[in-house]
Amino acid sequence: MKKIALSLTILLGALSASNATAFDGDVNAGKEKSATCAACHGPDGNAPVNIYPKIAGQHPDYILKQLQDLKLGMTSGGKEGRMDPVMSAMAMPLSEQDMKDLAAYFSSMNMTEGATPKDVVDVGEMLFKAGDAERGIPSCAACHGPRGNGSSLAKFPKISFQHPGYIKSQLEKFRDGTRHNDLNGMMGDIAKKLTDKDIEVLSQYLGGLH
Predict the structure, then answer these.
(1) pTM higher than 0.85, yes or no?
(2) Is 126 annotated as a binding residue?
(3) Which residues of the chain have pLDDT under 70?
(4) 58, CA 20 to 30 Å: which among 42, 50, 123, 158?
């Protein structure tokens, strides 16, 4: 818990001391380069299949970081960055400008809304907004915001309206250590304290979070 709090303090201090810079990706160029992405993520970034993430409306800086990390995961043999058998291979041939253009394009699209099952609203809201102090689980909203919109500067992703299947798989990967490209290991530390039920509830809750 102390590690998470310290990481947030350092991050917020760095962000407050810096000025935001314009993202220099080209939306039109990104659209032209996005054809191969459409098979999994849809032509507008709203993945038609639950296990793939919606990337429409995602922060461009976050998309860029993930593409960089996925490429690094392949070049380092999984020792660094983020390794995914499919996406790391897709990211390998991309130049830095390709990544920026794709990030600019998909971030300019609108993410489709999802829905939250009524039976998980109360428990999901409590865990998302307050965490669980007894188990050392911080509030998800502390980083991702009360509406799950995340932060572009901090590279915290928008997680509201995301497919439940994808949220579930990523929390499980953070928990078992197969995904480890999070800032100072914060998500890994938190996910290790989540039960299967916690993960199921959060993934369902976030699907329709407004």
Answers:
(1) yes
(2) no
(3) 1-22
(4) 123
